[in-house]
């Protein structure tokens, strides 16, 4: 949610920033509704003031034994007018909230302008690309060749965009998740959580999934939403609370299943595990002091990059342009891992600073020591990492000519010492 005062103070700056998001002068409609709402509030105050005065005059007349029928009629008319003004103000406030809730966060000035991923700007590259003596295969050919990745059986049960992992590949996914969690909790200072996988409307609204992205989510018959990422429950741990300054920062991590309808992804990555309705992810969430959020974004990105470095997987980090950035973010780094089977880099983590955008929706605030009043916290989120895509990266980067997979040294302990995954 946006700070309405900032839009009032400098609508041109707001419109300029939102132009990078593809919006044309959104402040015009916002300020028109805001002006109408404030006019209704002024009418309410005037009507209430006159009603109070007239009610007092009724009492004074009656005390003198004078007729007060005209004033009694006026008080009733004022009461009716006040109810109408209150209803109008509520309606205008609801329209304004609905409008503001559908407008994405304002990009930072240093975020590159652009329409899509072709306009993202590379920040750095890490790792050496492996020179294969054979043509590397894609992950689905490798997994099916091992007999441990079964899309057909999954489709019979659930339809497209599901997979059944078996044996060593199932263990590999679990090993990767445990490795990520252990790294984040023992080295990176995050607190592990097991949050709910089902949430109510307010939680989805707080992190920006609702109302705009309802079609991208799965909804149950009894009012729950399946989480698209554990960013939703982890960030909402700060909701509806006034924290002490000493409580910050709060840093969370969780490994959860994630559920997405992929409504806008028809025809994209139809084969394999790149884009699925159900996948697992280790998420990182930070709730921090406003003065620390940009520093925290760099820290969080480094935590995600550290997992790839430990697994010796080549990657590059890019800053997303205005047209490719998520709804709630002011600045985002995407980390893209190298997939030799596809001969390209693919996203494996997004780390975003949401500033106070989510905090305003969630009413997540804190008190500065020794000061009156409250301030909104800043929230950040990042994948640390997408576990299924990390499995894909391991399969493609560690593949051997005979179709077997060498297990990265960093996770062999999680695999019971197994060094090579071969066909059973």
Notes on the protein architecture:
Helix content is 40%, strand content 20%. It is built from 12 helices and 18 strands. The protein has helices at 4-9, 11-19, 27-64, 69-101, 139-146, 151-158, 167-186, 201-206, 231-235, 293-310, 357-362, 387-397; strands spanning 121-126, 149-150, 164-165, 191-192, 198-199, 218-219, 225-226, 241-244, 250-259, 278-288, 315-319, 331-339, 344-353, 364-367, 375-376, 378-386, 405-406, 420-421. An 8-stranded mixed sheet has the order 1-11-12-13-16-10-9-4. Strands 5-7-6 form a 3-stranded antiparallel sheet. A 3-stranded mixed sheet has the order 8-14-15. The chain starts with a helix and ends with a strand. The model has no long low-confidence stretch (mean pLDDT 96).
Helix tally? 12
First-residue to last-residue Cα separation: 53 Å
Helix content: 25-40%
Q: Look at the structure and give the mean pLDDT.
A: 96
Largest sheet: 8 strands, mixed
CATH topology of the largest domain: BirA Bifunctional Protein, domain 2
Order of helices and strands: HHHHEHEHEHEEHEEHEEEHEEEHEEEHEE
Question: How many structural domains can be distinguished in the coordinates?
Answer: 2
CATH architecture identity of the largest domain: 2-Layer Sandwich
Q: Which strand order does the major sheet show? A: 1-11-12-13-16-10-9-4
Q: In percent terms, what proportion of residues is strand?
A: 15-25%
User: What's the shape?
Assistant: elongated
Radius of gyration: 27 Å
CATH superfamily of the largest domain: Bira Bifunctional Protein, Domain 2
Class from helix and strand fractions: alpha+beta
The count of β-strands is: 18
